[in-house]
Amino acid sequence: MSGADEPLLVTRTADRVVATLNRPHKRNAIDQATIDALHALCAELEETPRTLILTGADGVFAAGADIAELRERRADDARRGINAHAFVRVAELPMPVIAAIDGYALGGGAELAYAADIRLATPTLKIGNPETGLGILAAAGASWRLKEIVGDARAIELLLTGRTVHAEEALRIGLVSSLHEVADLLAAAHAVADRIARNDPAATIATKRVFRAPRDQHPAVDLEEQAALFESPEKHRRMTAFLERRDR
Predict the structure, then answer these.
(1) How confident is the model at residue 66 (pLDDT cuts 50, 70, 90)?
(2) Pfam families recorded for this chain (predicted)?
(3) Cis peptide leading into residue 219 (ω within 30°)
(4) Catalytic annotation, residues
(5) pLDDT given at position 2
């Protein structure tokens, strides 16, 4: 595959990468080729950290995992965690991940969105986990990430009913941070990335690492990261610039 036939279209600049799920004939359903492409992209961003914007082609984020592939998978495939491990890797990228979600984000598509640090959406958003209706469970992150986003009571209701959440409810329960018209969605994601880019990358990486650390590691993990930043020349430069501006 090459060019427009790739399952993940990637554009790169100095401080960010935009990755577009690109299987419009399958509503961007996440298949093995997409997972392989996500792993390759993660390897790149682990080596050279940049903000990642994830989005989907043709008015859909991802309508789910590829059901034709899922139907043929057996117990050993489940234990391999094909999607789960890829989404963990996305979530653990050093720099922030922004999901720009238009239209459907269902099943594995929703779980990929949950792996992002920040989620923006359009008014056409339809997000949820209908896995139990297909005789499986949401095993690629929803069972632990969703409750961290919307709370235990809301998360278990959504997972057990498998119902679809529409845009306004998603905004109300904190599943997405903001809603934007379709034409403005990617620009809104870039605006968030611009704001992140103005900050110190080392401090951003440290903040994400501390935020995702288990509760029993606090406050030790915070203090160790802060200790490293206190010795940073960039901290001194930025604070000096702040003081000089204030004193003018």
Answers:
(1) confident
(2) ECH_1
(3) yes
(4) 111, 131
(5) 44
